[in-house]
Amino acid sequence: MLKVKLFCGILINNLILKDKLIKILQKKFGKIDYISEPYIFNYTDYYNNEMGNQIYRFYVSFEKLIYGFSLGKIKLITNKIEKKFSKNKKRNVNIDPGFISLANLCLATTKNFSHRIPLNQKIYAEVTLIYRNKKFNILPWTYPDYKDEKNFIHFENIRNILKNQLKLKN
To answer: pTM of the full predicted structure?
Structure first.
């Protein structure tokens, strides 16, 4: 079974928290080998009641490769990390773990839907993008920010790191 590249899409409402969050993520999942610059997240107002009107998005990936089935356990860990950063039961950080393989980008979620597969009692996996014809392609349920081609550069960069890691192992 081929291993995949663990990454997290992170929403954060205060960039001062970023370094502390990065340290915790590295402690849990190992060395980070890719981190994007934060940018203003303005694709939806879904998170505004909880996180405020100034929300930033950035992506990180981890050097250590994982098996895709471990994503359910990882999502439970990231949910606990989110709670550490919460105040008055409102999140300041939202961590969406997923993986990038040579064939797709998958995300973990706590919400079930027709196109999602259960990983454990509380967590589901979703293929969010597929890699075909030398590029990532959207699906009908792909989230707005994952549909935005300006973010594809991050997913391509992470996929290229994975390709190089897999070549080194052979």
So the answer is: 0.94
